[in-house]
Known about the structure:
Chain A is mostly helical and 293 residues long.
Amino acid sequence: MLSQQIFNGLILGCIYALLAVGYSLVFGILRLLNMSHGAVYTAGAFMGLLGASYLHMGAVPTILFAMLLTGAVNVCINRAVLQPLREQGAANITMLISVTGVSYIIQNTLMLVFGSQKLPFPKVFDFGSFRVGGVLVTSIQVMIVLVTVVLLGALGLITKHTRTGLAMRCISQNPKASNMVGIDVRWIISFTFIVSGICAAIAGYMVSGYYQLVYFTMGTTAGLKAFAAAVLGGIGILSGSVVGGILIGLCEALATVVFGGEYSEATAYVILFLVLLIKPSGLFGKDDVDEKV
Amino acid sequence: MSELILQVQDVHTYYGHIHALKGISMDIRQGEIVTLLGSNGAGKSTTLSSIAGIVHPAKGTILLEGTDITRMKCSEITKRGIGISPEGREVFPRLTVAENLLAGAYTRRDKKEIAGSLEEVYALFPRLKERTKQMAGTLSGGEQQMLAIGRALMCKPKLLLLDEPSLGLAPNLVELIFELIVRINKTGITILLIEQNANMALQIADQGFVLETGTITLSGEARQLRTNDAIRRAYLGK
């Protein structure tokens, strides 16, 4: 029972990690808490529903379809809302409020189009299940772990070893100098939003397939918990967000065992509260992270 | 007389409502060291920013080897051969020395050529070579200045813009930086230099311009400027 819960927590943790990375990517480059990320994740889930149930596409084309559209939604948020504000020199709080507004626009658009009731999502990657020790493992769970590992691994390689990744790190440290060395700052920011949108789409698709359910408010709590995960790991630090996500997933599962299902929902927020109280820069964050040398 | 590499023609630049440059014109000849003198707030850095495309002039034209670059994006101008070492160095503090230099080569694609340029920069600044894996934020001021110049050289510039490279450095380092500027110039790179140390700047420069509240008030051969009475009073301390 306990090992099963821990395993389930790990799966949930993978999803939080995928979402937390989206927060961290955008925060790292813009110092912005992208509060529309939960809604973008919901949009990803609905794009998956559109592909699978309405357009009857297979699993892989559906994922690609959802990635493409959700990436595009995220780029639109950047180009239509954030970029004009940024170039007027708007304060960070203005952008924070704007993206919060955007999240309501996305949610309510989805509600208008798809309705407010919970909708069934088709089973995905359903190849049965097997037992390891006492733990029941389903094929979708295996897929969630695999996809998370591959995606986050690829992301790590991109940021550490490619020209674009170097440009992302440059912008996060000194946007002015990045422009001076000839980095196309606008494009790199758009690229960051594409990647974060893709992560959200994959998370949305996987969760919907896992629970076989989509609804327009699904991103609200998931988004906040993933935000807590990003803060726990040290927001802006990709590997930290992954660890944070998995820890939150595990803690939530253990809380279910100890306190029961009703209280486990509060786990992420309790952790967020404790992190902000004890070490606001997170597990992997340096306290001088914003200091210019 | 050699060819003109840069022509700045009647450039007006605004920062918000501040009219920072009020019609600047300068001709810079290929292969020279040109220095831009003037007090704080005269518009020296704005002139460099306008040339590098960091800010765009409201009026006027800037030609690089005859091509109009006035409205080009910074990345496009870097690609065409203008490198800038900005005031305050502006290195990437949490990237290594090597990564900072590679960032300078962002607009270039050929990996072999980039590796070649990296070796050239290391030959010029052996101090940087000893510290390739060190975070730029942990370097001393002089080393950061070398890194900023090295990073600007990594785009393979025809024209190098240097904004106060000796600011805040110990006298022996100031001399070293000036020696290096001359060496860089000898490799065929034209240099536009902003300096508060007018004396030393005029000694290595071929040409000089004096900027006062957004207009050029005096220009000429550096040799002549050194003996000009007004300059001696204002910038050379007699």
